[in-house]
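WARN  no MSA supplied for this record, continuing single-sequence
INFO  ligand: heme C
INFO  echoing inputs
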Amino acid sequence: MFWDNRVRSLEAQVLEPLKALEEMRGMAYAEDAAVDRVVARLQAIPEYVSLFAAAFGSGPIVADHLVSAIAEFERSLVAMNSPFDRFRAGDTEALSEQQRRGMETFDDVGCDRCHEGVMFSDFDLRAEGVAEHPLLTEPDTGGGRFRFRTPSLRNVALTAPYMHNGVLETLEDVLRFYNTGRSENPNVSNERGRRGDRTTPRVDGRFRGIDEMSEGDMQDIVAFMEALTDEEFDRAIPARVPSGLPVCGRIER
Ligand code: HEC
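INFO  complex generated
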């Protein structure tokens, strides 16, 4: 999980955003103090103390409780009833003609070399040479040599902006990027390397040769990706939370 594949379970994932500067920690305290500070804050809110006691038994809240609670919530966010899933289950009307065309083009042009299988991901690290985010003070090398994890495309129409650093605004922009077939990152070479050269960052071999899509092909692929949306999973935003902090989020109600 994460764009650099650094954790292997939901339980290990949960604590990372609390510790990450760009996500929840900010500058307030050091990375190794972040989790303890969060647990202490929860412990100071009586409503959380009683909710945790109801779930985990009495006694102080510990990081493991926080981990289990959020990991279980994440496990409930299953989105496997998209039009694409219904089509695969035999409902031939579930996809429009354009979406069916897009599904074939997706495979024909080679998107499925990496976005493969039921999650549309090989879960592997691959370099595409996405442009650096303009606000970063040093380049983000991802999981090494500017490789980032192939993201799942399920519900991708709901999760703009795109790529590991959000530099592409729309799915059309992503398609246009693939259609140039070129790294836009000066640190990632477009040249093929010598066999066995594993040191120079280069675009992935599977990234090459997708650059001959017509405008219509790209529109069809976008329409297909829109058929990967399952509207039914729980997108509710609570009216309030026990901390009293303002409730935010970009999910449409
Ligand atoms: C070489 C393997 C590979 C191929 C081939 C590939 N992708 Fe990707 N895709 C990735 C990786 C890796 C990323 C993340 C790149 C990054 O952020 O640096 C990505 C990102 C994306 C994203 C952004 C998802 C998000 O949540 O931000 C979309 C959409 C996408 N690809 C669609 C496609 C389509 C459509 C094709 C075919 C035209 C395609 N991909 C071909 C590996 C691949």
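The chain has nine helices and two strands.
INFO  checksum written, moving to next record
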